[in-house]
Design goal:
90% helix, rod-shaped, 203 residues
């Protein structure tokens, strides 16, 4: 069971990584289109966006991995308000963390830090909402499908057990109707008549 859980977690984090890469590509292409960037600059923006996407997406994925079901099980619209709040909060925190990382390695200047952070945060919230809601909706549908499949499997097993029990009961009923002594005596009589009177034994 623990092994299955590990495989399930690996699959989940692989899926999160692919969503993060897709989000980074969307962000880089959108920024390129808005600012009129060339292919090389879009490539550089993709690398920047990949850092933001993994920080924001990783934080979002970790939060939803542990708290997604309880959040979704709240009454509507409180559930979606909570989900949107988590997405926005993760976008803001991840964006701030990304800019701190870029500042630490010298890719951001101290005097432009807050301006760059504000721009990145607005952009991250928009992309985060689009990708986050889509990814969360997909995971809800996937979970619902898995639950439905499991319920159908349990129902099918229950039906198979019921059919097996019915067949066993029918067999037991037939066995109880057969009189072994009568059958044994009849077979003995037929067996004795075969050499003496084959026609009568056949009748």
């Amino acid at each position: 069971m623990a092994t299955d859980n590990r495989f399930e977690q690996r699959g989940y984090w692989r899926w999160v990584l692919s969503v993060n890469v897709a989000a980074a590509a969307i962000a880089a292409l959108a920024e390129g289109a808005v600012m009129g960037l060339g292919a090389v600059q879009i490539g550089q923006e993709f690398l920047y966006s990949l850092v933001f996407a993994n920080l924001i997406g990783g934080l979002m994925a970790r939060t939803f991995y542990y708290f997604g079901k309880p959040l979704y099980r709240q009454r509507f619209p409180l559930n979606w308000i909570s989900i949107l709040f988590v997405i926005v909060a993760c976008s803001i925190v991840g964006s701030l963390a990304g800019n701190v990382v870029f500042l630490a390695i010298g890719l951001r200047q101290a005097h432009t830090f807050w301006t760059a952070t504000w721009f990145a945060t607005k952009f991250s919230v928009v992309i985060g909402l689009g990708v986050g809601v889509s990814a969360f909706g997909y995971s809800i549908l996937r979970g619902t499908l898995a639950d439905t499949t499991e319920q159908l499997h349990h129902k099918q097993l229950a039906e198979e057990r019921a059919l097996k029990l019915a067949a066993e009961a029918q067999l037991a009923s037939l066995e109880s109707r057969v009189r072994p002594h009568f059958l044994f005596n009849t077979l003995n009589t037929i067996s004795a008549l075969i050499p003496e009177d084959p026609k009568r034994s056949e009748e």
